[in-house]
Amino acid sequence: MPEATKPEKLRGIRGLAVQRAGALALLVALSTFPSLIAAACAPKAAQTSSNSAPQAAEWNDPQWTDLIAAARREGKVVIAAGGEPSRSYPPLLDVFSQRYGVTAEMTTGNATETVNRLLAERSSGVYTVDVGLIAHNTSQRRLVPAGALTPVEPLLIHPEVTDKSLWYRGRYWFADEEQQYVFLYSGKPEDSWRFWYNSERLSPAEVATIKSLQDFFDPKWRGKHASLAISDPSGLASLIRLYLAPEAGPDWVHRFIYDSDVTFTGDRRVLETWLTQGRYPLVFPAGGTDELVDLQNAGLPIKEGQIPKQTPGLQTPSSASSIEAFDHAPHPNAAQLFVNWFLSKDGQSQVQKIDGALFGSMRDDIGYGNIDPSARRKPGVVYEYEEAEPWRAEAANAAVAQIQEWWDAKP
Question: Which regions of 69-210 does DSSP assign to beta strands (E)?
Fold first, then answer.
């Protein structure tokens, strides 16, 4: 792809119910009962700490107290969630409900399934959802063009949220081209492409030969390499990033889909099983990295490898990344209250209490809670955040169209 300036380029976690003391027992069981991996990874609410801590002093302003009263009269807020929030955020919703006396209901399922249902409902004039916690790529690619969202910034009234000096680099971050609808609340520094491998099937010397993205095309990996299909939002997001990356680009993605003999699956549990049992000992892109970290910590024989990126910066998670406000909200006051609370110091602090979370808040005033040290922004470092630049939404949409065309045409 020709060189161009950036604006011109088309370019929580489920806690694993396995204690270290039981890890060896799980390994033994897996050798006889492969399906236990899927059971071990079954979704459940993430653990949070100090949810019962004393509530921070409320903003004593008539506009805020009136909003709380109106939200209580509505009684509830309905939140459409993607995969990771639907698994990990229920404890946060409990905190919100206890704070304000408003029930917070949340859908389940991945972002694609959730959006399919919502757009089908809306086409029939049915409006059931107030707020979205949906993968940013899916939101900007499908919900924005469908006219399903309303701008977020006009809803923000709490001084902890409206004071932009409290946000990274003194601004709000959005994933959509108009910079209005898909509000990005999380990101992490990323200076490498990450892959996973089975440490019992691949030797350190074999893994050491993977030094660039081109090395995944080495014939020795044929029949050994697996990846997420684009039917999984994380699988699609990974290919979008590769399509727009200078060290990969469209040619790399085309070759990866057609000529690399990669085995794809749209089921993360299947991918995890293949990797941990060594059926396919190399996985790239990996998708749910936090889930693989859980399995590694439980004692399963998998490790992470890294390839340096040419353009390091902040990366947005494919699922727990953005908040959206739906138009025709059935509970508009409760929706506005939830959006303000979720983006406040209290709300974002609750997000970072999720055990093992791998992406930090874009707020600068809350510390890092339980966020993994590797995912914390370093003081004084200015990170580029291309996924939040206006040009990238259009570039990502063009990438999706081409990737989908190649995918549909592959044998």
Answer: 76-81, 103-106, 131-133, 149-150, 183-184, 186-198
